[in-house]
Amino acid sequence: MTEAAEAALPDSPIAVLSGPTFAREVAQGLPTAVTLACADTALAQKLVELIGIPLFRPYLSDDPVGAEIGGAVKNVLAIACGIVTGKKMGDNTRAALITRGLAEMARLGVAKGAKPETLMGLSGLGDLTLTCNGPQSRNMSLGIELGEGRALKEVLAERKSIAEGVFSAATVVALAAKLGVEMPICAAVDQVINHGADIEETIAGLLNRPFRAEAPTAN
Amino acid sequence: MTEAAEAALPDSPIAVLSGPTFAREVAQGLPTAVTLACADTALAQKLVELIGIPLFRPYLSDDPVGAEIGGAVKNVLAIACGIVTGKKMGDNTRAALITRGLAEMARLGVAKGAKPETLMGLSGLGDLTLTCNGPQSRNMSLGIELGEGRALKEVLAERKSIAEGVFSAATVVALAAKLGVEMPICAAVDQVINHGADIEETIAGLLNRPFRAEAPTAN
């Protein structure tokens, strides 16, 4: 999005506001914290002072690219978390998917020039843990229906709202391929959504990958 | 724990196994992933081969200290997440607490010589997101009862199981003070649990802190 915004408005500074924000809760005045990222730190500081209140706390970042990667990738991972939830695979599995998913997200971010710590913040992990644990999320609820055995076409036909992850799965996988980043969970979601892969076989494929080192940016 | 184990068994190598593992689900054979950390990488590799199966996937780490910090601090943060859940403050608030809580956990880990990436892994973030979203967690369910307005003494008297966070809150805060690490969320839990602080006032205090930079290890 920042690339598109910069192309459209080449003389304007771009800032990114992103984080764990179910809109209904923000509107109700429930406490919410977000990342406010801008390359121009003085401008970011000014924006924080303009929009920040105790119930809506913006945290400063100088990494707009990092802040937007989280928002895109988390929708794909939420579909994966929905699928394992629909299949009643348990909370341990979902926590592992969130953690290994964050490692994928961080690898992609770093390859796009983001700082790894941004992905560990509100716009990365924060949004991820919100979306992957709340059936309020459109992407997670779509995944749940797939995990329960329903067909994608049928689920999409019934919906008025858009589950962005259906579209971003392919985009994320293409970007990862271009940058040489391994993203097995996102690739699995893309296979299931866009290439008719069998869910059971895809999960077995993930579980049978070789054991490896954990550190998120080292592999 | 590694310090205690090394003191008791000075000639034995120590490895740490930790991660998002509700025991009931592991016993049911639901897929689970964990961190296996040992300073001796060859030994760690051997342990991974001995205990790893597709449904129980250990990820290698050479950072035992990092692996154990997550397991201790997450119990304190789970009480905080329980309190805001009991008070019906919404999913945005809980996601923000998890994220800012992870930043505290990482600062403490780094001060104890851990690698920050370990805290972002299964034994850190993974266990945190599991414990802070699942009412199966003893610490989170304790926090929920406190958030609903019950007295700690009364809640503890009814329980057979132990909510570790009640004990580790004071230990974590003392260690943080010794190492000069700022941990406002853990300190708030300690105030509520051990010093009779009012929950409403403590939450207001957290929300009224000055706005700041987000990066977890920079402050």
Number of helices of chain A: 12
Oligomer class: homodimer
- Helix fraction of chain A by DSSP (H/I, runs of at least 4): 55-70%
State the total count of DSSP E strands of chain A. Answer: 3
- Cα Rg of chain A: 18 Å
Indicate the low-confidence ranges of chain A by residue numbers.
none
Q: How would you spell out the order of helices and strands of chain A?
A: HEHEHEHHHHHHHHH
Task: Give the percentage of residues in beta strands of chain A.
Answer: 5-15%
Which word captures the global form of chain A? Answer: globular
Broad structural category of chain A: mainly alpha
Largest sheet of chain A: 3 strands, mixed
Q: Greatest contact pair?
A: A-B, 62 and 62 residues
Quote the average pLDDT of chain A. Answer: 93
Describe the structure.
Two copies of one chain form a homodimer. The two termini of chain A are 27 Å apart. Chain A is mainly alpha-helical and 219 residues long. Helix content of chain A is 60%, strand content 8%. The radius of gyration of chain A is 18 Å and the shape is globular. Chain A contains twelve helices and three strands; from the N terminus they run αβαβαβααααααααα. The first copy, chain A, has a three-stranded mixed β-sheet with strand order 1-2-3, sandwiched between helices. The mean pLDDT of chain A is 93. At the A-B interface, strand 2, strand 3, helix 5, helix 7 and helix 12 of A face strand 2, strand 3, helix 5, helix 7 and helix 12 of B.
